[in-house]
């Protein structure tokens, strides 16, 4: 008799079989659960993705809309070029990552092999230009200037150039009509990045990998309207990539056209006159620093006074926006962004901020009247103003005796404004204000004039400037007191003394701060566009408009036109009576005041012109020239850094801009046939039935034509009218005049200015 079961299996074997059965059942259960998850729970999702493996997309880029001037002349449009591109994905499939192909391609195109290889590498924080900042999965343009011969070589020997294409494509063109550049206004394009694609994925304006997007200027501000919508055709393909059917097709929608208020002719004149004024300033000797003026940057704005529309906006130094088309070279990128470039990408009309000097006195005048001072009262214009041990000089020591606020604007008397601001500072309690809110009329007026905040111009990157009121001083002191206390010395250098005083009481409104602030010095900063709004408002009766460049958006077929209307955003804090008296005083600046020597012979009876000069001091640099002007139609603001006095450096250029606008000739007569824009253009250019926009041809160079008139003015000579005037000469006029010939004594608590 035996203990072995009839099955012939021992207990140990039976146990093993049971364990195996459990494992098999567990695996089957897991597999079944996974299949249920894939096929039932997420079946639809995976089916959609799987079907995508058999659908290929072919993208047809949309034609980007044009940017036009007010008369319909293209400032930025498109042209067909032969573009040679490289597929980074295909290159990386090759053993050497495509280095041999790119070297061979460089030989055909006549380019440096290393630069070609750099163009296909991806941009990151450590990779300098040239590099590719777009999607790595879209073709990367190597050049958009290929010749037909080069394109044929590449296409006929496709086996030698795997991953390389040569196709005709529409590329951006910045036309520069009549030699007008407008680089900072227009901006430029570059490829969309993966991050931008993700961010815009669920918006009403998603990106495709082939899209080019605006990076600055109008190209960025109106990118959505200009870009249009790319066409996408989807093809069904088998596993071998053969097309087996057409799934869906969405036609490309071209972008809309942007009509601007820029007049290309006036833009050219503004750019030319700014450049000429800067070159002339560099030929003049600065007796204060003992070297010629550097005149390293500047800006000019021409704005319609009654609408806020920008007719011209120039910034210097400038650049050619076409360098970005088809990818920028390392040399060009360094020229635009290197430490020695002076940063031409900056639009100094909206991003350049500096002390406004005496052009700020219109704000101080309004503040004084609001504080209760009579506009026509008598205020001492002494040669200097003393506060404790500090002496604040008036120009070169002029003494005009008791004068009104209007006359103080005409001759730009600093000491009048010193006294008014000092009186109000004392009334507010001095360095330790009385209980309750100080009146702060002078600081409040600046905010009411729109300073210290953006104007809202339709360009990206606008800066706010600065009103150094009590709140700003407190926050600035909290951020810098540790550094001031560490470096400050009571008996050290000028900078060390300033740091010492700031350490002790930098959060308080000191007497010197209030005095310097009244004439646009100290920590006050403004931009040219802010001044254009202010002086335009004085011209039109007191309404401040939001400055705009876009005038209308026109669909590609011309059937839909969306006008961009002028938008008022406030009024100057002055009564109509005060405004009228300021208006009369500013006319006097151009006829018998600090700007009269530059506007002698101007037809003031037919085209009344108003002005305010300003020469702002900047520690460690030469003086900044400001000239703010207006007529009943326009306000024109010009500023040049390190260039001398307001009228000396900018007067002739501003006069020439007005002469071009109104057709003023050398003898003071007006030739309407030569006037570029005697009245602002209200209508839009004519739109044809096919959607195209009519545009006149720009022939010649408007700036060169006006230069002939300017030369005649210089040859005739200007007649001096009143004190402190300097007659014009056939040679460039010295920018110092007689106001800035020696270093003036300044207190250690701030800076001062001349007119």
TrEMBL record:
<dbReference type="InterPro" id="IPR036138">
    <property type="entry name" value="PBP_dimer_sf"/>
</dbReference>
<keyword id="KW-1003">Cell membrane</keyword>
<dbReference type="GO" id="GO:0006508">
    <property type="term" value="P:proteolysis"/>
</dbReference>
<comment type="similarity">
    <text>Belongs to the transpeptidase family.</text>
</comment>
<keyword id="KW-0997">Cell inner membrane</keyword>
<dbReference type="GO" id="GO:0005886">
    <property type="term" value="C:plasma membrane"/>
</dbReference>
<keyword id="KW-1133">Transmembrane helix</keyword>
<dbReference type="GO" id="GO:0009002">
    <property type="term" value="F:serine-type D-Ala-D-Ala carboxypeptidase activity"/>
</dbReference>
<keyword id="KW-0378">Hydrolase</keyword>
<feature type="region of interest" description="Disordered">
    <location>
        <begin position="686"/>
        <end position="755"/>
    </location>
</feature>
<dbReference type="InterPro" id="IPR050515">
    <property type="entry name" value="Beta-lactam/transpept"/>
</dbReference>
<dbReference type="GO" id="GO:0009252">
    <property type="term" value="P:peptidoglycan biosynthetic process"/>
</dbReference>
<feature type="transmembrane region" description="Helical">
    <location>
        <begin position="17"/>
        <end position="37"/>
    </location>
</feature>
<keyword id="KW-0133">Cell shape</keyword>
<keyword id="KW-0812">Transmembrane</keyword>
<dbReference type="GO" id="GO:0071555">
    <property type="term" value="P:cell wall organization"/>
</dbReference>
<feature type="domain" description="Penicillin-binding protein dimerisation">
    <location>
        <begin position="60"/>
        <end position="246"/>
    </location>
</feature>
<feature type="compositionally biased region" description="Low complexity">
    <location>
        <begin position="726"/>
        <end position="739"/>
    </location>
</feature>
<dbReference type="InterPro" id="IPR012338">
    <property type="entry name" value="Beta-lactam/transpept-like"/>
</dbReference>
<dbReference type="InterPro" id="IPR017790">
    <property type="entry name" value="Penicillin-binding_protein_2"/>
</dbReference>
<dbReference type="InterPro" id="IPR001460">
    <property type="entry name" value="PCN-bd_Tpept"/>
</dbReference>
<feature type="compositionally biased region" description="Basic residues">
    <location>
        <begin position="740"/>
        <end position="755"/>
    </location>
</feature>
<feature type="compositionally biased region" description="Polar residues">
    <location>
        <begin position="709"/>
        <end position="725"/>
    </location>
</feature>
<protein>
    <submittedName>
        <fullName>Penicillin-binding protein 2</fullName>
    </submittedName>
</protein>
<dbReference type="Pfam" id="PF00905">
    <property type="entry name" value="Transpeptidase"/>
</dbReference>
<dbReference type="InterPro" id="IPR005311">
    <property type="entry name" value="PBP_dimer"/>
</dbReference>
<dbReference type="GO" id="GO:0008658">
    <property type="term" value="F:penicillin binding"/>
</dbReference>
<keyword id="KW-0573">Peptidoglycan synthesis</keyword>
<keyword id="KW-0961">Cell wall biogenesis/degradation</keyword>
<keyword id="KW-0472">Membrane</keyword>
<dbReference type="Pfam" id="PF03717">
    <property type="entry name" value="PBP_dimer"/>
</dbReference>
<dbReference type="GO" id="GO:0008360">
    <property type="term" value="P:regulation of cell shape"/>
</dbReference>
<feature type="domain" description="Penicillin-binding protein transpeptidase">
    <location>
        <begin position="298"/>
        <end position="658"/>
    </location>
</feature>
<keyword id="KW-0645">Protease</keyword>
<dbReference type="GO" id="GO:0071972">
    <property type="term" value="F:peptidoglycan L,D-transpeptidase activity"/>
</dbReference>
């Amino acid at each position: 008799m035996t203990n072995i079961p009839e099955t012939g299996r021992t207990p140990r074997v039976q146990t093993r079989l049971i364990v195996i059965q459990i494992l098999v059942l567990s695996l089957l259960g897991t597999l079944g659960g996974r299949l249920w998850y894939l096929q039932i729970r997420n079946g639809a999702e995976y089916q959609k993705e799987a079907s995508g493996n058999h659908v290929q997309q072919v993208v047809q880029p949309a034609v980007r809309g044009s940017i036009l001037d007010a008369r319909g002349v293209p400032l930025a449009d498109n042209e067909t070029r032969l573009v040679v591109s490289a597929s980074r994905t295909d290159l990386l499939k090759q053993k050497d990552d495509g280095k041999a192909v790119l070297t061979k391609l460089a030989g055909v195109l006549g380019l440096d092999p290393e630069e070609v290889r750099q163009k296909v590498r991806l941009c990151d924080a450590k990779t300098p230009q040239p590099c590719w900042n777009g999607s790595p999965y879209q073709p990367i343009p190597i050049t958009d200037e290929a010749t037909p011969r080069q394109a044929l070589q590449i296409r006929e020997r496709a086996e030698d150039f795997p991953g390389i294409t040569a196709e005709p494509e529409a590329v951006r063109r910045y036309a520069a009509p009549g030699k007008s550049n407008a680089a900072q206004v227009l901006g430029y394009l570059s490829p969309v990045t993966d991050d931008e694609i993700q961010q815009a994925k669920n918006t009403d304006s998603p990106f495709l990998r082939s899209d080019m997007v605006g990076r600055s200027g109008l190209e960025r501000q109106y990118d959505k309207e200009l870009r249009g919508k790319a066409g996408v055709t989807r093809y069904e393909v088998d596993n071998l990539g053969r097309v087996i059917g057409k799934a869906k097709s969405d036609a490309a929608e071209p972008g809309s056209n942007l009509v601007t208020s820029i007049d290309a002719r006036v833009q050219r004149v503004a750019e030319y006159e700014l450049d000429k004024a800067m070159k002339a300033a560099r030929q003049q000797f600065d007796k204060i620093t003992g070297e010629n003026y550097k005149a390293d940057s500047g800006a000019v704005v021409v704005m319609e006074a009654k609408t806020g529309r920008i007719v011209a906006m120039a910034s210097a130094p400038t650049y050619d926006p076409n360098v970005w088309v088809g990818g920028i070279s390392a040399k060009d990128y360094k020229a635009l962004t290197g430490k020695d470039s002076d940063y031409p990408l900056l639009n100094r009309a909206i991003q350049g901020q500096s002390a406004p000097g005496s052009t700020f006195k219109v704000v101080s005048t309004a503040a004084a009247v609001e504080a209760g001072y009579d506009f026509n009262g008598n205020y001492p214009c002494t040669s200097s103003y003393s506060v404790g041990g500090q002496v604040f000089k008036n120009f070169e020591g002029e003494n005009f005796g008791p004068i009104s606020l209007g006359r103080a604007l005409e001759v730009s008397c600093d000491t009048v404004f010193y006294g008014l601001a000092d009186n109000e500072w004392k009334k507010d309690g001095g360095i330790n204000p009385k209980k309750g809110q100080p009146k702060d009329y002078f600081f409040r007026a600046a905010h009411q004039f729109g300073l210290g905040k953006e104007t809202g111009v339709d360009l990206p990157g606008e800066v706010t400037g600065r009103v150094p009121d009590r709140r700003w001083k407190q926050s600035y002191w909290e951020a810098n007191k540790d550094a001031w206390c560490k470096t400050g010395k009571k008996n050290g250098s000028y900078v060390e003394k300033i740091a010492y005083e700031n350490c002790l009481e930098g959060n308080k409104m000191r007497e010197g701060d209030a005095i310097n602030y009244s004439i646009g010095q100290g920590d006050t900063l403004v931009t040219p566009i802010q001044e254009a709004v202010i002086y335009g408002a004085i011209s039109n009766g007191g309404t401040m408009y939001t400055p705009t460049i876009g005038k209308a958006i026109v669909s590609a077929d011309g059937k839909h036109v969306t006008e961009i209307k002028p938008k008022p955003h406030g009024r100057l804090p002055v009564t109509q009576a005060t405004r009228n008296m300021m208006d009369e005083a500013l006319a006097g600046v151009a006829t018998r005041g600090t700007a009269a020597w530059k506007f002698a012979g101007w037809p003031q009876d037919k085209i009344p012109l108003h002005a305010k000069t300003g020469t702002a001091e900047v520690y460690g640099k030469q003086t900044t020239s400001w000239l703010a002007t207006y007529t009943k139609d326009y306000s024109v603001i010009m500023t040049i850094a390190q260039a001398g006095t307001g009228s000396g450096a900018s007067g002739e250029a501003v006069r020439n801009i007005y002469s071009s606008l109104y057709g003023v000739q050398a003898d003071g007569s007006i030739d309407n046939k030569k006037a570029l824009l005697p009245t602002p253009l209200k209508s839009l250019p004519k739109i044809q039935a096919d959607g195209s926009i009519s545009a006149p041809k720009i022939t010649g160079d408007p700036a060169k034509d006006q230069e002939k008139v300017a030369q005649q003015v210089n040859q005739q000579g200007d007649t001096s009218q009143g004190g402190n005037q300097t007659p014009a000469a056939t040679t460039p006029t010295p920018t110092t005049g007689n106001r800035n010939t020696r270093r003036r004594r300044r207190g250690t608590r701030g800076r001062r200015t001349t007119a």
